[in-house]
Structures are given as C-alpha cells and as structure tokens.
Specification:
alpha+beta, OB fold (Dihydrolipoamide Acetyltransferase, E2P), 5-stranded mixed β-barrel, 3-stranded antiparallel β-sheet, 7 helices, elongated
Length: 252
C-alpha cells in the first residue's frame, strides 16, 4: 500500500505532461526540498489545474509512495494565489528555474522555502512594468540561495587575514578560498572579480535587513553571476531567453 505523508506546504516549480492524462510536477517543499510527483488525471481535470496546479500558488500537498517519484494525493490551497504581473512573471519563472537547476532532490530546504515565499510576496506587490523593480528582490534571492547551498563565501570575511574585510580595501573572489585582498595602484580600475570592501559590507547588511540600495545592485549582480556561472554550466536559462524574446532587451 502506498504510504501517504502528512500535508505540507509546497509550490509548483515546473510541470510537464505524463501519459495521456497526467502531469509530472516538480515541487518545492520545506521538508523534502525539490521533489517530483505524478498528478494522475490532472490533464483531464481542467478546473483542478486552473485553481491549484499552477506556479506561484501556495499549496498544502500530500505525497504517496516510497520512491523518489511520488504520487500526488489530496491538494489544498494554503492561501490566495500570488498573481505576478508583467515582467514579474518572468522573474518568478527565473527563480523557479534556478531552484530546478541548483537544488538536489529530496534534501530539506526550510530556509530556501522561506526565501522563495518572501520573493514571491515581493514580486506580487510590483506592477511589473519596469525591469529595475525586479533587481533588488532577485539579487537578494540569488545571494540567499547561494549562501544556503554553501556556494557563496561570507561577504564580510577576509580569507587572507581571517578577519573582517576593511571598507577601504579591495578584494578578489577566489573560488576555493573566498575574498582575498588586492593590492594595486590607485589609478588601476577594479576588474570583474574584484569588489570594494565597502560594497561587501553593505551587501552583507542588505541581506540581513532586506533593503538593497541602488548603488549595490551592480556589484550584487556581478557577484551572483560569478557564483552562478560555474553552477549552471553552459546550458542557457530558458526563462532568461524567454524574457529577452518578449521584451527585446537584456535588462535582467
């Protein structure tokens, strides 16, 4: 007999057709992290798909079975759907794709789940008309996700001195070490992998209080791109490509 797990919070990250009438769903849950399940008959039940089995809808789900691919049992709405508008839709799809690409299957992700909920709530409050609106919540989510995965060094820590970074110094991100000081002449410009100590300290503070100043968005984006590129590999993000096709620019 299939074993039914207790109801737990979930969001749908991705869905695809399965057999003649079913869907395979990829869920984000706090207890099991990313987990796949079969929603049997969901393609026949149009009302169920429209009301519940959609991205950005907070759910309570029950999962049956012992294997890696579960069977979806009863589903309840855990609150009102978070309707994302305009460009915010693509920001949500981008976050979903990051989680699909970066999270291992079946590992608890309590903090990631909470960060994802906060991101969706923030995106839902935007009118979605400008790409600039998306930058602060996306940069914060990316950094939080990278930290939870152990792929982002502590921003305020100097690996060379084994102490806090200094606001007036410059630091280079080394993949296996962390942030190390850079010594160069005053007329030399920072390169892509270098960051001012002041920016690193401000980014650390911004992660804690959730408020990203406009001046931090550029270094935050440089940092997240440096950290995400080796994790994502050469395969492009479909959500980013779709955004570019729809809006004909590269402002995310």
């Amino acid at each position: 007999m299939a074993q039914q797990q207790p109801l737990q919070p979930a969001y749908i990250l991705h869905s695809r057709p399965y057999s003649d009438s079913s869907l395979i769903l990829e869920l984000l849950t706090p207890e099991y992290g990313r987990i796949g399940c079969v929603a049997r008959g969901a393609r026949r039940d149009k009302q169920r798909r429209q009301q519940s089995l959609q991205p950005f809808v907070p759910l309570l789900v029950s999962l049956l079975g012992r294997g890696e691919l579960k069977t979806l049992g009863p589903v309840e709405n855990a609150g009102s759907a978070l309707w994302l508008k305009g460009r915010a839709v693509y920001a949500g799809l981008y976050a979903n794709e990051l989680l699909m690409r970066l999270l291992a299957v079946g590992e608890a992700q309590y903090e990631v789940f909470a960060c994802y909920q906060t991101l969706l709530q923030t995106l839902a409050a935007l009118d979605g008309t400008g790409a600039g609106q998306l930058e602060p919540p996306l940069r914060r989510f990316e950094l939080q996700l990278l930290q939870e995965l152990g792929s982002c060094p502590q921003l305020s820590y100097c690996a060379h001195s084994q102490g806090p970074v200094t606001a007036g110094a410059c630091y280079r991100l080394e993949a296996e070490t962390g942030f190390v000081p850079v010594h160069r002449r005053g007329d030399e410009r920072e390169i892509r992998g270098e960051f001012s100590g002041a920016d690193l300290l401000a980014l650390e503070q911004a992660l804690q209080n959730g408020e990203f100043a406009t001046t931090l968005l550029a270094p935050a984006k440089r940092l997240t791109r440096l950290l995400l590129t080796p994790l994502l590999g050469d395969r492009p993000l479909q959500s980013r490509e779709l955004f570019r096709q729809v809006y004909s620019n590269n402002d995310r």
